[in-house]
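Put briefly, the fold is written as integer tokens. The lines below illustrate.
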Amino acid sequence: MLTAAQAPALPSAYWRGFVVECPVSDGQLTIRSGPQAANNKLCFVDIVQVSVAELPQITSVSLSGGNITIQWTGGGTLEGTSSLPASNWIELGSGGSWTEPTAGPARFYRVRR
């Protein structure tokens, strides 16, 4: 989820734009004001259905020579974190392949569009 602190700030603007991707599995999408909202208004919402074939997917994970290599298709950015549940995902790469040493703390990975 994107918070106001993460949205691009414009010094004299009275608006902010947000892009949020969220799965809806029960047919209901609820949009409400955040806890610090004051006199806010909602201008518009674009809702787009994405097929599973369009989503990025990790296709292989391999270990070799003390390195881990992760490959994915469908675009997107590989992110990693050292604990779950995570609020501190770190962007690692966006080229469809990422290699890093296995030494160090355990890491969890995901690919986001």
Remarks:
- Residues 1-6 have pLDDT under 50 and may be disordered.
- The CA atoms of residues 81 and 108 lie 5 Å apart.
- The two ends are 13 Å apart (CA to CA).
- The longest strand covers residues 57-64.
